[in-house]
Design brief:
By secondary structure, the chain is of the alpha+beta class. It has 6 helices and 6 strands.
Length: 208
């Protein structure tokens, strides 16, 4: 009488985690016709995950402008227009009017320089042009101090202002903008060399 091995007759256990190759196949087939990065390629669920521009930022075939982040629909990435992280790391920061500021950190202090850049003004009044650049620079400087958590002694070299009233307006504007800063700040005012001096306490303890 032949003995039958029970192990050979037993059924193999079911596969609880089968390999799912269909999505890869669909993704590959949907990409092969239109090319990667095209917003209209592939099935609906893939089309929703394609990178697109923000409203008014250009056509959908170019996923975002160079240097700006992309986000996807449904919790993904979208072109935000301005990369705040890159702006907070650059030495040069452009202003809306066309001027710019440069931020240089040293062990002793932080030096910020204001320049007219591409801005030439809308009239022949040079002092009004200078005042506009200095005003926009003041607003941006206060923002950058918070964004970069700059602390210690801060020296701002504004474009030379001939009118004393313009200096006082810039001084008042700086104090107003720094009221939104949750860190302790103190504006000392303009020195004899027409440099604005202020101090700020670091928020992050590791920068002390």
């Amino acid at each position: 009488m032949r003995t039958i091995n029970p192990a050979r007759c037993a059924k193999s256990p079911p596969l609880h985690h089968p390999r799912r190759r269909a999505p890869r196949r669909v993704q590959r087939d949907g990409r092969s016709t239109a090319g990667f990065g095209t917003a209209g390629a592939g099935p609906d669920f893939l089309r929703q995950k394609q990178p697109v521009r923000a409203s008014g930022a250009g056509n959908a075939e170019t996923p975002g402008r160079a240097g700006n982040p992309l986000v996807f629909h449904g919790g993904g990435r979208r072109d935000t227009g301005v990369c705040w992280k890159e702006k907070s790391e650059n030495r040069k920061v452009w202003l809306k009017c066309g001027g710019f500021i440069t931020i240089d950190n040293t062990e002793a202090l932080t030096a910020i320089d204001v320049n007219t850049g591409k801005f030439i003004g809308t009239n022949n009044d040079l002092q009004q042009t200078i005042l506009k650049v200095n005003e926009e620079a003041t607003i941006e400087i206060a923002k950058q101090l918070r964004l970069r958590d700059i602390g210690g002694i801060i020296i701002v070299d504004y474009i030379d202002m001939a009118k004393e009233q313009d200096k006082q307006n810039i001084l008042a504007l700086m104090k107003k903008e720094l009221k939104n800063d949750r860190s302790k700040t103190q504006v000392e005012g303009f020195t004899k060399l027409d440099l604005m001096e202020l101090t700020r306490k670091h928020i992050c303890s590791h920068k002390e």
